[in-house]
Amino acid sequence: MRKTNALALAALGTALTMGLAACGGTAGGGNTGSGGGTGAASGAKHNDAYTKVVNPSDAKGGTLKFALSDEPDSMDPGNTYYAWNWNFSRLYARPLMTYAAQPGEAGLKLVPDLAEGPGVASEDGLTWTYKLKKGIKYDDGTEVKAADVKYAIARSNFTDELTDGPKYFAQYLDAEGYKGPYKDKNLDNFKAVETPDDYTVVFKLKEPFAEFDFLVANPQSAPVPQAKDTGLDYEKTVASTGPYKIETHEVGKQFVLVKNENWDPSTDTTRKQLPDRIEVQFKQNAEDIDKRLMAGQIHVDLAGTGVQTAARGQIVGNPQLKDSTDNPYTPFNRYAMLSTKVAPFDNIDCRKAVQYAVDKVATQLPWGGPLGGDIATTAMTPTTVGYKQFDLYPNGADKKGDLAKAKEHLAACGQPNGFETNIAVRGDRTKEVQVAEALQASLDRVGIKASIKKYPSGDWSSQYAGKPDFVHQNKLGIMIAGWGSDWPSGFGFLSQIVDGRFIKASGNYNMMELDDKTINELLDKGIQTTDPAARNEIWAQVDQKVMESAAFLPFVYEKTLIFRPASLTNVYVHPAYGMYDYTWLGVKQ
Amino acid sequence: MEAQPEAVVQGAGGKAIEGRSLGQIAWTRLKRDKAAIAGAVVVVLLTLIAIFAERPFGGLIALFGDSPNTPNNDLLDPLTSVPLADWGGISLEHPLGVEPVNGRDILARILSGAQISLLVAFLATLVSVAIGSLLGVVAGFFGGWVDMLISRLMDIFLAFPLLLFAIAIVGAVPDQALGLKGNALRIAVIVFIIGFFNWPYIARIVRGQTLSLREREFVDAARSLGASRRHIIFREMFPNLVAPILVYSTLLIPTNILFEAALSFLGVGVAEPQASWGGMLTRAVDYYQLAPHFMLVPGLAIFITVMAFNLLGDGLRDALDPRAR
Amino acid sequence: MPGSDPPGHPGRTIVFAFIVRRVIAAVLMLVIVSVATFAIFFLIPRALGQTPEGMAARYVGRDATPEAIQGAVRRLHLDDPLIVQYGRFAQGIVMGQDYSLGPRKAECPAPCFGFSFNNNQPVWPTLLDRLPATVSLAIGASVIWVVGGVSIGVISALRRGTALDRAAMTVALAGVSLPIYFTGLVSLALFAYTLGIFPGGGSYTPFTENPVMWFQSLVLPWITLAFLYAATYARLTRAGMLETMGEDYIRTARAKGLKERTVVTKHALRATLTPILTIFGLDLGLLLGGAVLTESTFSIPGIGKLVIDAIRGNDLPVVLGVTMFAAFFIVLANFIVDVLYAVVDPRVRLS
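The joint structure predicted for all components is written out below.
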């Protein structure tokens, strides 16, 4: 993936409570508003915002201040792939569906936002129909029409200009030959989405897709009036449907939102409108952000990826500071893939030898130890629906490797004295390089001599690890990677990285080149299964199969340590985003 | 770009050197210069350390026990990834402490990094000196349009934002090319870039020297005796250019050490896990508040090395040209 | 050199012709730099096997479909022959160019350095926006290093051989031997985080917003940067002073019975400062093109930080723009120094 914080939505699985217990948090209560009861942050404990709303308050006014060390790909809801922006953009853009505003598992339920109710699938599963709520207005007072949703889908998925967001609609909709609204001004030629009247949107699919509601929870379904669209510049003047509208946007510097008077709270079940003003500063120094957070000068680190090492050191050593932090799972699994097409990893026993030889405590350290992630043993993360805990390759009680087992499998593989191989890694990702080094050192203990090959992350997927030809030629046996899904289901998480039919000549994420008929069939079966429980059971089976191949070497289920200043109200970790719900926050005056 | 790589040379290059022959006088002067002798001693020691760091039989690093790439996770606090013990985990086994995140022995990495720093600096200086002396002599000797062309070329090279180019080129280098791969290739590219862009400093000085030598009696004499140009350049003038070239090479080495460190610091130097001083500093940036020793050690290593070469270079220059004192 | 100036005034036409010649040379130099820069960033990747699609893949979202990549190739014109791409780049600088935003076009008046591949903003305004931070850093630091370096150099020269001289020169030598990203980190650790006297990295505030905070945030970077340069200048000044103090005209001045102070300030110092001013011009020119290491270490949002971020993000138009901008300052500084020299010392003009 190109962006570390590229979007993924997460679901809280069974492991949530386990994770919380491990962190000393209080598990339980998932009720919004009622669970908190503490007026001051000083009463809140570490991880409190994980399970309840901290500092509940209805006080209005004030300025909510965000800071970001990076700059966004775009603030245009139709052109962004950053996780935080799928959370943040809801302040000014309402998609058809969205996630319930609840901490814990309840927050993973989809609720209608712009739509009146969930999508209705046809008998054959090939069309999905959504009815829009009536009377929803843009910030200029004009009414939202179904055609605006259609236009939003067309511009975000079918143009040369808006290339930053995902292209799921282009992938699943039946829109063969459509040139996009910038080349073809007549929207009627976009036949994959129909608008029989001003309040009905009908999507036509190539194949049945049972999780379509998840796709329209993506900000790309937020309406855009064709007359207002300025293409790449639209991020400066987005027509707002949410509780806030854009006052100014200086690209790469700052972004200011003010209240949108045309937002009607009675149509909106998930958002609040407490601060008068919301300011975002881009390209701030990461350490300085932490300092300002702890000093209460800003309220939220927008990226939601956690504090830097220096601040972490401070927080760990100070119980009071620690009580102002939460340690949620992110949607990311950090892992390595072993290429099934590069000798000797074409032999499953050599892959198993690596599974047993790895010191998972050492590979956990670069992420920041236990605060940076739990040691992982599966492909799916604990916050994905369908996750089941299992460990096919127990590598010692201390998780530091079972060298005897590893040697057994090396012998079975016909390489009793070990072998030579390469570890490919994105050279500009320090943590991943450190993981590669730790892996190299642990494999060395059983005679596997691995050399580290560094490649630039910009071309990682198009030219190097994502290009099977290159992988074979350069004998890249092990590739360090990470993945977070775009919606919190097994399909969203797994399909891109384990489906054998997704092995691409370039831009390939199934870098282990695992092409297992059973897995492919299970994925097909799952996405056509409408019953969620049965579907989730299938995702767990896929995970089991993937781990049986021994080609997927998980390191950690990533976690972040995020800081909540005492002046912040209505704070809770939204499980779908793995960070605070940005549409709920208020500030104490 | 900071003038750091340039500053040393500019500082020294302000004046031309008279091409007096090396000899007893210079040697006597040098011996009296305690700072220069101290510099020379450190330079010799560092060179020996770099040569014997990993060979033979594991070299100096083996003497101290830990290899530069062995992790020692037991020594780290799992929550913060920094050494558990005070003072960066300094102990008998790890005289300079261990690195955060993976607990690698810092002394072993410093020794291993010394090889890279000195190797790159020496080779890059050789490249600069080769190109610079040749073009400098040609420009100075032939004069006219040749001189003008080469002088303009120097101006153009000096107008390039060198550091940016170096980052861009090193960043664009693939894993395998020219029959080399991995770090061997990266070192070759770094040497080439540093050497190739630094030649004008040497060329400028050599050109000046050549210009003044050209008018000297012994060259005139050779010319009137009908000596060939080749004979005049190589037999008559070159021996007189050796001294200034030597001095400015000594002064160019520390500049190149700093340059290599800057490239490694910016993430385009040699690849981990091979240790390099600049690379160690990059990793120290995240931890400079929690584990300051990890920043201080490689920083001081760079400082001591560069200072030693500067002291020696200054001493050599003063010995050969007392007016500069 | 002053003191040895031959009498007489240079003819205006000769001066004019000289300036014209140097302007032409400077413009030529910029053209060569632009070609070389373009070649390094566009030609070398191609020569190493990079395809237009490979380059475009960096500028689309993470699950780039082949169609999205093709779209980016077309939008950024990466499939055009390199000479056409260079032509467009050069044309933009001289005449401006248009750029497709989708439903409409954006105008980019000359000098147009193109649009960022990453955030689609025109490069030139971004550069201008970053310039004040770099100028603040460069000017402030240069005042400190010129005053500090020259004074130390003069004192050292006058007290030659004393303990003071030796101490000052040792510190100066240490100054040129320390990498700025190391001294920067040490000073941040010491003065910002341990003692809390100055704000830490990333605290730069524009002068127009809050002059006091602007000053506070820049003190550490100024001193750190100035330390490096002051060391060089002290060494240069000392050497220059010692040389001029040995010249005949200084002895003459002394013999005439002038006060030592007058000899030093009126004669020796003035002669020493001329070459130092030359070097100062070049150093300042270099710094205005972006102090990459200092700005990175202290997180100052100047041109140097911009270009490092751009290189890391493969934002070629921004990298090209900054390189040209930096080269422009270097060439300009060279030009000014040349012209000043020619005015001061007519011999230069004639050679």
